[in-house]
Amino acid sequence: MHLVLLSGGSGKRLWPLSNDARSKQFLRVLDDHHQHLSSMVQRVFGQLNTIGLGGSTVIATGKGQVEMLEDQLGKDVPLIVEPERRDTFPAIALAAAYLYSMTDADLDEVVAVLPVDPYVETAFFKRILDLQKLLDDTGADLALMGVKPTYPSEKYGYIVPDKNENNDYIKVDHFTEKPNEALARQLIEKSALWNCGVFAFRLKYIIKKLEALDLPLNYEELSQQFSKLPKISFDYAVVEKAKSIVALPYEGFWKDLGTWNTLTEEMSTQQIGRGIISEDSENTNLINELDLPVTVLGISNAIVAVSPDGILVSDKDQSPRIKEVMKGFDQRPMYEERHWGSYRVIDYTSYSKNHEEVLTKKIKIKAGHNLSYHCHHIRQEVWTIIKGRGRFAENGVIRSIKPGDVVVVPAETLHAIVADEPMELIEVQMGSQLIEEDIKRKYMEWKEIEENCSSVRS
Questions:
Q1: pTM of the predicted model, to two decimals?
Q2: 420 has pLDDT over 80
Q3: 420, 422, 388, 381: which is closest to 404 by C-alpha?
Q4: In sequence order, what DSSP letters do the residues of 11-46 get, joined into one string?
Q5: In what residue span(s) does the Mannose-6-phosphate isomerase type II C-terminal domain sit (predicted)?
C-alpha cells in the first residue's frame, strides 16, 4: 500500500500563529516522546515510521510549503508539488501519476489518501492498512475509513450507510455535511460515521480518470499540464460518481486539532514562550513567539496567542470564530520558516509621497546553510550582521563577513550568504514594490556558488 498525505491549508483557524506561509500542521506546540516541541506533521510521520509506512508515503503539497516540509521532515520524503492550487482532485491525480510513472507501484496496488495532520493513536494508521483487504473482499471502487462518533457533533461530515447493519464495514448510501445536533443524533442511530478524510482506491481507478480526461500519465508531463486538470474537489470529481463505496469503522481516539480550543486540550504545557499566567487563571494557555513578556491575570478558559502576525485573546469556546472574524483581513506573513532558517518582519512602512516601501526583517540562518545566489530587479537591500560569521558572495566575488559588517546590495546585484556558524542579520529592503516575486535565482547550493565565484580576503 502507498500513502498520500495531503498538506494544504491557508492558516486562518489558528491565527496569529498560522498564516498563508505556515499552516497549522507546522506549528511546534505538541510534545514528542522526548519532551521536545514538535508539529502535527512531525508527529504523524513519526507514527508512520513506527509501523513501517514512512517509506511508502508521499506528500502532496503546494510550492509554498516545500521548504517547511523539508525543514521539519528532511529531504528524503517524496513531495508531489502542485504548480498551483487547484483543489484536491488535481493534487491526488498528480500523486497518482507520480506513483504510476516514477515508482514501481502496480496498477492494482492500493493507494490510501489522508490529511497530513490527524491527531490520533498509532492504531489509526494500522487500521488504514485494513482498507486494502476491504477493497479485495468487496470489489468496491472506493473504501473509506470513518470514526465511530462519540457525540452528535455539528463540526464534522457524516458517512451514512444504506441500512443499519452490524457488519465489519458499511455500504455507503450518502454523505451529510455538518448537520445540526438533532440530525446528527438521527444519523448516529443509523450507524453513521464521522468522515475523517481517509479513503483508498486501486491506482488504476484514478489512472483511468486521467485517461478519460485525455491527460498524460507521466508525472513530469502532467505537472507541466497541471492547469488542464479540472479545478474541483476529489469528492465532487470522484466520490459522488463512484458506483460502489464502502467504509470501515474506526473506534479509537481521533481528533481534529483545527481550532484553538481543541489544540490546547492536547498541549502538555500551559505556557510556551515568555510570560506569566497567574494561578487563578484556570484553563488558560499562553503561546508567545515574541521576546516580550506577556502577563495574564485572573483570566480563565482563554487562549492568548502572540506572534509577529498579531495577538489573539479569546475565550476558548469562542475561538473557532476566528476564521470568520479574520475573513477579508489580508496581510503578508510576518514570520516564515525556511529550510535555511527563518525570518521575522520587524517593521513595514509605505511612503505615499515618493511611492517607496521599506521592509525590515530579522533573518536567522542555520550553521552550514545558505541563501540562494540571486538578484532583485526593483529593490535594494542593506544587511547588517549582528551574530555569527560567514561568507558573502556578490557579483562573482566571495568575502568573509562578521558581526558589525554592513553590506549594501543594489538592485540587479547577484548575492548570497552562507553561515559558517549560526548567523543573524537585519535586512532592510527599499523599493517601489516589495514583493516575493521580485527575485531571480541563479544557484541554490553553496558548492555551486563557490565554483562560479572567486574568493578574496576581507
A1: 0.85
A2: yes
A3: 388
A4: --TTTTT-BTTB-GGG---EE-TTS-EE-HHHHHHH
A5: 338-441
